[in-house]
Amino acid sequence: MPTTESDESPRVPAQRRRRHGATRGPSGPAGRAPAGRRRGPVRPGPPQDEWARRLLAALTGHRTPQDLWGLATGTALHHLTTATPPYRTATPVLRTTRATQVGPGILEASATLEADGRVHAIAFRLEDRGDGVWRCTALELAP
To answer: Domain limits of the chain?
Structure first.
């Protein structure tokens, strides 16, 4: 009968050495923080980022242009509904946004997106009419 060795002594986990003043990292798997926990309120980003995402969603069909009713003027909505999406097969990815303040409560913004290995541009004008809600008043799509 073969014999096996067994260690009957209780196993004590090896203590980790930490430098003085070092803090622990996140406690989730693989050193990541547990999902689902947010610390503090979520702050909205710049208005041009939010609007670039809205326009991209409307161009890709994830939103209808009518979802922007009340947030965009008739001219901008008309241009959005009649625009041909600047991509063919791939879903565009938002790359950059920029904005310049041209007056109090007025931003002229641009966004670049990439689809099918090409870069496309969107230019739009945002106006805050004093209620804190930014509205799109002009829109141009570059091919």
So the answer is: 47-141
Rounded distance between C-alpha atoms, residue 55 and residue 121, angstroms: 12
CATH of region 47-141: 3.10.450.50
DSSP string over 2-22: -------SPP-PPPPP--TT-
| Beta strand spans in 49-105 (E) | 93-103
Task: Kindly provide the b/e burial profile for residues 59-73, where b requires at least 16 CB atoms within 10 angstroms of the residue's own CB.
Answer: beeeeebeebeeebb
List pLDDT tens digits, range 27-76: 555 556 555 555 656 566 789 999 999 998 888 888 888 888 889 988 88
User: Which pairing describes strands 134-141 and 118-128: parallel, antiparallel, or unpaired?
Assistant: antiparallel
Residue at 105: amino acid letter: G
Residue with tokens 């670049």: 112
Interval 95-110: pLDDT, tens:
999 999 999 999 999 9
Q: Is the pTM of this model over 0.85?
A: no
Neighbours of 46 (CB within 10 A): 15
Three-state secondary structure call for residue 118: strand
